[in-house]
Amino acid sequence: MSNKSSIFAVSICLVLLSWLAIHPVQAQTPTESNNAVYNPLNGVTFSGSFVDASMLLPPHNTTQAADICDAIYGIFINKWATGSYPSTGEVIDARGISGGTNLKCTHGTPWSEGGNSVNLPATILLPATSGATPTPIVISTPWVVPSNTHLIGEGDGIGSSAATTIQVSSTFNTTPGYIMQFGSASGASGISVERLTIDGLGNAVYGIVNPNAGPNSYVDHVTLYQIRGIGLLVENNADGSGPYSNITFNTGSYGGTTATACAQI
After folding, report:
1. Residue 93's beta-bridge partner residues?
2. What percent of the chain has pLDDT above 90?
3. Which domain holds residue 71?
4. What's the distance, CA 230 to chain centroid?
5. I need a labelling partner for 19 at 20 to 30 A (CA). Which of 51, 131, 135, 225 fits?
């Protein structure tokens, strides 16, 4: 590098340091769960397209969300002052959430609590939950996934260090007959479940049922594990959905029944 180039580079560095001295780095607002972005009019502000859900739970925070589902639901309704949720949706990144207590959904689902529910679009990134000491996401209530929601895990391999498992609890409500459903009514669309395992713990229920969601709705790289009902059920109002690809069905340590099957379309 020539002397002239070196002097120019040093000058740029000095200008940058001078700017930082006048405009110190600001904290993310309104809460620590928002990524900071620079706006030329308002300086450093929070991103309206991305929220880090892990910042709402221990060890980062001990006063806000109760578990992973509560954290996500609270983001939808602005319970944590993360900003009004955009109608066009955003990325909710829960990949940093760990610990058995944080992963047990005790208040409801990511979209419903206490008889209230939301129907908002989102891309939800779920954490890896497997490995030497597996701690799955434990649910006691079936998940009804709204339109334009993409539920994405870290992998579908059971026992892999990069796998995400959603497992029913010992008190799971089997009355609806399924673990996960696409849409709450006909006309739903844009729903996907990807790169995760759904563990039924031997219950004779459907793993994933799609009675409602049509175009741009699909399942990819999903393991349906220890389910003694139908692994995947696709019904008439799901016309135009798919593909349903890279699906593994394994009853594990549980024997199947005459009603057990990988898929029914």
Report:
1. 52, 125
2. 69
3. 3-264
4. 24
5. 51
The two structure tokens encoding residue 207: 């793993």
Determine the pLDDT at residue 25.
Answer: 36
**Cis amide linkage into residue 136, ω under 30° from 0:** no
Cis geometry, peptide bond prior to residue 176 (ω within 30 degrees of 0): no
Phi, psi of 129 (to 5 degrees): -125, 0
Give the span between the Cα atoms of 44 and 106, in whole angstroms: 36
Number of structural domains found in the chain: 1
Amino acid at 151: L
Buried b (16+ CB within 10 A) or exposed e, 225-234: bbbbbbbbbb
In which residue are the tokens 């002397």 written? 3
Total residues found in the chain within this entry: 265
Q: Determine contact, residues 211/177, Cβ cutoff 8 Å.
A: no
The pTM (predicted TM-score) of the whole model is 0.82
pLDDT tens per residue across span 125-180? 999 987 656 689 999 999 999 999 999 999 998 767 679 999 999 999 999 999 99
Report the C-alpha gap between 7 and 9 in whole angstroms: 6
Do 85 and 34 touch, CB atoms closer than 8 A?
A: no
